[in-house]
Design a protein that fits this description.
By secondary structure, the protein is an alpha/beta fold. The protein has 3 domains: 146 residues, Cobalamin-binding domain (Rossmann fold), CATH 3.40.50; 229 residues, pyruvate-formate lyase- activating enzyme (Alpha-Beta Horseshoe); 55 residues, Beta Barrel (OB fold (Dihydrolipoamide Acetyltransferase, E2P)). It contains 14 helices and 19 strands. The chain has a 6-stranded parallel beta sheet with strand order 2-1-3-4-5-6, with helices on one face. It has a 5-stranded mixed β-barrel with strand order 15-16-17-19-18. Helix 9 packs parallel to helix 10 and helix 10 runs parallel beside helix 12. The radius of gyration is 23 Å and the shape is globular. The termini are far apart. Bound molecules: iron/sulfur cluster (SF4). Iron/sulfur cluster binds next to helix 7.
C-alpha cells in the first residue's frame, strides 16, 4: 500500500472511532466472477478500516455497489437500485453511497450520476481499490462528489486484505484486463490492457487457500491463456498451472475464461497430466460461422477451434467442454446459424451458456446493422436450446453405472439431495446428507437427466 493510502487509512480509522456505533458497510457485487472477486477485496479493505459487514442497507454507513459494465440491461438495473437508495440518504445524511467496478469507468455513467444522482457521492475506478480509504475520507469530509482512480491500469496491491464469500471454494485472479477487442465487448475499454500477477503471488495465495482447507480454487482472468505475456515473469499459463498443481493437498483447480485463439495442445496436456486441474475446458466459441467470427474479431475459425476439441478427445474421451454462444449477432444469417448448430452437434458440449446478442454502446458491433428480425433470433434461440438439451442428455447417458468423485457443494433439504460437480465439472445430484457439503464424495451414477447426473454415495 502506498504511503498516501496508508495515511488516508489512518485518518479514516480515527474518524470512524468517533462513530457512536461500530460502522457498518454493505458491498454488493454484480456481474462476472472477477467482479465478485474484487468485491471480496473491497470487503477486506472496509473490515481492515474498522467496519463490520451488513446485508441490510438500512443499517449501513457505507453502501458500495461494485458493478459490471458488460451488459447494458444489468447496468440499467444497477442505476435503478442506486436511485432507490435516495430515501436512505435523506434519512441518514452521513450515509456514503458509492459506485465502483468497471461500470464506474464509463464516462456516460459518471455524467449521469453527477447530474441526476447527487446522493451517490463516491465513484471509484475498477483498478483503484487501494484508494478506497482516501475516497471515503473525502466523502466524510464533506466532498459532495469524488471520482477516484479512473483509468487506473495497474494491478491491485498484493497486500490488500480479502474477506472471502465462500468457505471451501475460492477465486484467485491471475490477470486483469484484456487486449482482444472482440467487437461486441466493452471489457477492454473499461478494464484496460492485460496485466498479470506474478506467479509467486498467485502460488502464495493458492498455497494458503489449500492449507486452510479450500477444496476448489478458480483461477480468473478475461483471457487466462495470455497470462504472463508482456511481463517480466516470462511464464505461460500452462507453466503456471503446473507450478500450482505441484502444491500438495486435496483440491481441484478450475480456470476461466480461455480464448480459443490462445488455448493450445500444451494446455490440454497439462490438464490431463495434472493431479488437481479439472478435466474440463470452458472454451467460448460464440459462433460456428467463420464470417460471424470474423465480424466478431475473434481471430480463429471453426476449423481451428475443432482441431483442439479433437485433440483433447483423442487424449481423453471423457474430457468435458462447455462454451458461451451468442445468438443474433448483427451479421448472423440463418445460414450462419446452421453452421453454429453443426458445430455444437459435433462438439457435444456438456454445457452451453447461450445469450441473445444485445448491443453494448461504445463497441463496434453496436454500430453494425442487424440483418435478422427479433422473431428470427428468438426462433434460433429456441432451436439452439432444444438441440443442446438433447446433446447434454445424450452426453450424460454414457456415465450411468460408473463411479466417480464429486465435490459436494450444497444440500437440497427438500429433495434430500447432495449436489456437486465432478472433476470434469459435470453436475451431479445424489442421495446423501448435509454433513458432506464441502467434501469430496465418491458417488455411483445411476441416472442421467439433461440438467445433471443422478446417483448415490458409495
Ligand atoms: S476476450 Fe473478447 S469477449 Fe473476452 S473480455 Fe476480451 S474482448 Fe471481451
Amino acid at each position: 500500500m502506498s504511503e498516501s493510502a496508508r495515511t488516508a487509512a489512518d485518518a479514516l480509522r480515527a474518524l470512524l472511532a468517533e462513530f457512536p456505533h461500530t460502522p457498518r458497510a454493505l458491498v454488493q457485487s454484480f456481474g462476472c466472477q472477477l467482479n465478485f472477486c474484487d468485491g471480496e477485496k473491497y470487503k477486506g479493505i472496509l473490515c481492515s478500516l474498522g467496519y463490520t459487514l451488513t446485508d441490510e442497507p438500512e443499517k449501513a454507513d457505507v453502501i458500495l455497489f461494485n458493478a459490471c459494465a458488460v451488459r447494458a440491461h444489468a447496468e440499467s438495473r444497477v442505476i435503478g437500485r442506486l436511485g432507490a437508495l435516495k430515501p436512505l440518504k435523506e434519512r441518514n445524511p452521513r450515509l456514503v453511497i458509492g459506485l465502483c467496478g468497471c461500470m464506474a469507468e464509463e464516462d456516460e455513467v459518471r455524467a449521469l450520476l453527477r447530474k441526476s444522482y447527487p446522493h451517490v457521492s463516491l465513484v471509484l475506478g475498477a483498478g483503484a481499490m487501494e484508494q478506497l480509504p482516501q475516497a471515503l475520507l473525502s466523502a466524510y469530509q464533506g466532498q459532495k462528489h469524488t471520482e477516484t482512480g479512473l483509468r487506473f491500469a495497474g494491478l491491485p496491491d498484493e497486500s490488500l486484505p480479502t474477506v472471502r464469500d465462500g468457505v471451501f471454494q475460492a477465486s484467485v485472479p491471475v490477470m486483469y484486463g484484456c487486449n482482444n477487442f472482440c467487437t461486441y465487448c466493452i471489457v477492454p475499454y473499461v478494464r484496460g490492457r492485460e496485466r498479470s500477477r506474478t506467479p509467486e503471488a498467485i502460488e502464495r495465495e493458492v498455497r494458503e487457500l489449500v492449507q486452510s482447507g479450500c477444496r476448489e480454487i478458480l483461477l480468473l482472468g478475461q483471457n487466462v491463456n495470455s497470462y504472463g505475456r508482456g511481463t517480466d515473469c516470462k511464464i505461460s499459463f500452462p507453466a503456471l498451472l503446473r507450478r500450482l498443481d505441484a502444491i500438495d493437498g486435496d483440491y481441484f483447480i478450475r480456470f476461466m475464461s480461455s480464448h480459443p485463439k490462445d488455448a493450445d495442445r500444451e494446455l490440454i496436456d497439462t490438464m490431463l497430466s495434472s493431479r488437481h486441474i479439472e478435466h474440463h475446458l470452458h472454451l467460448p466459441v460464440q459462433s460456428g460461422s467463420d464470417a460471424v467470427l470474423k465480424a466478431m474479431n475473434r481471430h480463429y475459425t471453426a476449423q481451428k477451434y475443432l482441431e483442439l476439441i479433437d485433440y483433447a478427445r483423442s487424449k481423453s474421451e471423457d474430457f468435458a467442454f462447455s462454451s458461451d454462444l451468442i445468438v443474433g449477432f448483427p451479421t448472423e444469417t440463418d445460414a450462419d446459424f446452421q453452421q453454429t448448430l453443426d458445430l455444437i452437434r459435433y462438439v457435444g458440449y456438456d454445457n452451453l451458456y447461450t445469450f441473445i446478442y444485445s448491443p453494448r454502446s461504445g463497441t463496434p458491433a453496436a454500430e453494425m446493422e442487424q440483418v435478422s428480425t427479433e422473431a428470427e433470433i428468438s426462433e434460433r434461440m429456441r432451436i439452439l436450446l432444444e438441440t443442446q438439451r438433447g446433446i447434454t442428455a445424450r452426453c450424460n447417458q454414457k456415465f450411468i453405472g460408473r463411479e466417480t468423485v464429486m465435490l459436494a457443494e450444497k444440500y437440497d433439504e427438500e429433495k434430500g439431495l447432495l449436489v456437486g460437480r465432478t472433476r470434469a465439472c459435470r453436475n451431479v445430484a445424489v442421495t446423501g446428507d448435509a454433513s458432506a457439503v464441502g467434501q469430496f464424495v465418491r458417488v455411483r451414477i445411476t441416472g442421467a437427466k439433461s440438467w445433471a447426473l443422478t446417483g448415490e454415495t458409495v
